[in-house]
Amino acid sequence: MDKRILILGGTGKTGKRIARGLQHLQVPIRLGSRNENPPFNWDDPGNWQNVLAGIEKVYITFQPDLAVPQSIEKIKLFTETAKANHVKKLVLLSGRGEKEAQACEQIIIQSGLEWTILRASWFMQNFSESFLLDSILNGEVVLPTVKVSEPFVDADDIAEVAVKVLTEPNHSTKIYELTGSELLSFETTVSTIAQALNRKISYTEIGMDEYVAALKSYQLPDDFIWLIKYLFSEVLDGRNQWLSNDIQHLLGRRPATFEEYVTKTAKTEIWKVY
Ligand SMILES: NC(=O)c1ccc[n+]([C@@H]2O[C@H](COP(=O)([O-])OP(=O)(O)OC[C@H]3O[C@@H](n4cnc5c(N)ncnc54)[C@H](OP(=O)(O)O)[C@@H]3O)[C@@H](O)[C@H]2O)c1
Q1: Ligand 1: which of 17, 34, 58, 177 to mutate, most ligand atoms within 8 Å of CB?
Q2: What is the pLDDT, as a whole number, of residue 2?
């Protein structure tokens, strides 16, 4: 039996970076994706066993987000299936200060398998590979009022930590808090991008009700609207407004700054307007 590492969300923000890191080390991997063979879909547990065959360790990213209430039941079933298929170690990408994410962490912790939890703050890549990209390209970012700062973290740093945790000993039964090295307001992040691109990008905060009504008018899915509302009204309340030095400790260097992220991302031309 080969001992592969399965990367769930293997085509996503952290997964694709971890896949690259493991391939560089010539570690055999399997991508968990709806487009792979066998496919992995959180909504199709009947197929999980095929994806888990021959797998020794799993990097778990849940979709759409561990914060959604259905996550608990699915993580429980996935953990049981992994255990029944002789998986030895689970590494869970979790969120900070989210009650449902912590319930999922507990399922992994109590699984009887080796485990490591990576609790990450807001990804910088939300501005370039996720829901804020269109706003940056349109030159207009509108968000619900946020009174707190966030220690945005670079997905490259998360991936470097994950590769270490998946390939080196001494990381089992550990919870790592992965934050960047600065507490920043959303307004500052947007103006940093605008300055680097030499482009005008307006930043406006509006009340939650008005924001939700705007999302509804764009016919965005209810689940997405629920999630954004939850993250902005419950999680961004100051509970995560602190810096961790776990990345420094694990990688022997400070986490990337937002400016460093912006400089390298601008070079990819993802923010280029045609
Ligand atoms: N964004 C943040 O700021 C942040 C912060 C902290 C924690 N998190 C956590 O990060 C996790 C997401 O990780 P990520 O950002 O690396 O991933 P991601 O970029 O959101 O997406 C990963 C991949 O998941 C796959 N996917 C979508 N729906 C799926 C489904 N029904 N079943 C199976 N796969 C599906 C898609 O790949 P295919 O199309 O190839 O199937 C997608 O490329 C969430 O659980 C969230 O709690 C996020």
Answers
A1: 34
A2: 65
Quote the ligand 1 centre to 198 CA distance (angstroms): 31
**Gap between the Cα atoms of 109 and 88, Å rounded:** 13
Model pLDDT, residue 13:
98
- Nearest-CA residue for ligand 1 atom 47 is 65
Angle at 75 between CA 112 and CA 122, to 5 degrees: 110
Low-confidence ranges of the chain (pLDDT < 50): 1
Helices and strands in the chain, H and E counts: 11, 8
Using most ligand atoms within 8 A of CB, pick from 17, 44, 63 the residue to mutate for ligand 1: 63
At 175-206, the pLDDT tens digits run 999 999 999 999 999 999 999 999 999 999 99
What pLDDT is recorded for position 105?
A: 98
Instruction: Give me the amino acid identity at 129.
Output: E
Distance CA 10, CA 29 (A): 10
Which domains are assigned to the chain?
4-121+155-179+242-255 (3.40.50.720)
Q: How far is the CA of 159 from the centre of ligand 1 (A)?
A: 14
